[in-house]
Amino acid sequence: MLPPFYSYTYKFTATRSIFVLTAGSVDVTVTFLSPVEATDLVKQSTPFAYMAVSAASNDNAAHSVQVYSDITAEWVSANLSDTVEWSTSAVGNVITHQFQSQLPSVFSEYQDHVQSLSRAQSLDSKVNSDASKISADYAAIVELSIRQAVGATEITISRNPDGTWNTDDVIVFLKGITVIFWKYHSV
């Protein structure tokens, strides 16, 4: 068992919050990824985030590390009377607990964390590179401003009768400002 975390570092980018927690001779990195999909309004409209955890030795010795992360069934449905199904699976030494609504809806926009992470890292790099030409402080402000701007908006996209996304009907709402909205029309 690892001792309590006694130090940490952090880094914030336009798309990620990265925390490195030190516990004894192990560094545990927890990354929260909130994708910014500026070129894909359908993906940007999806309220979705990833959490990734990794561990590394800081004394070059081998260590056994176990990570436990948990959320509640309210993440599946805000309706507390909905039935949630739980299951557990193991692949190698990774045990995964999964849950879903007994009557799940299709949700396939974000099935590939690797591609989302790659796009996020590319955007982070470009933003940092471009803004750092002015100064490191300016780069930090721009990175956090992107997160604030994207986090303050809610994008909605309707579906066509055939089930495809109607990208001619995109509405962007500002969170907390329910009267003002901007409607995007493609040309």
Largest sheet: 4 strands, antiparallel
Share of β-strand residues? 35-45%
- Helix-and-strand structural type: alpha+beta
- How far from one another are the termini? 59 Å
C-alpha Rg (nearest Å) = 20 Å
Q: How many DSSP H or I helices?
A: 3
Beta strand count: 9
Mean pLDDT: 78
Going across the biggest sheet, name each strand in turn. 1-2-3-4
Shape: flat
Fraction in helix: 10-25%
What key attributes describe this structure?
four-stranded antiparallel beta sheet, 9 strands, 187 residues, alpha+beta, disordered C terminus
Quick structural summary:
The chain has 187 residues and is of the alpha+beta class. The protein has three helices and nine strands; from the N terminus they run E-E-E-H-E-E-E-H-H-E-E-E. The longest helix is centred in the middle third of the chain and has 20 residues.
Structure characterization notes:
The chain is of the alpha+beta class and 187 residues long. Helices cover 21% and strands 38% of the residues. The chain contains 3 helices and 9 strands, in the order E-E-E-H-E-E-E-H-H-E-E-E. The chain has helices at residues 41-44, 113-132, 136-151, and strands spanning 7-12, 16-23, 26-33, 50-57, 84-91, 94-101, 153-159, 165-174, 177-184. The strands form 3 sheets. It has a 4-stranded antiparallel beta sheet with strand order 1-2-3-4. Strand 8 and strand 9 form a beta hairpin. Helix 2 (113-132) crosses helix 3 (136-151). The longest helix is centred in the middle third of the chain and has 20 residues, at 113-132. It is flat, with a radius of gyration of 20 Å. It starts with 6 loop residues before the first strand and ends with a strand.
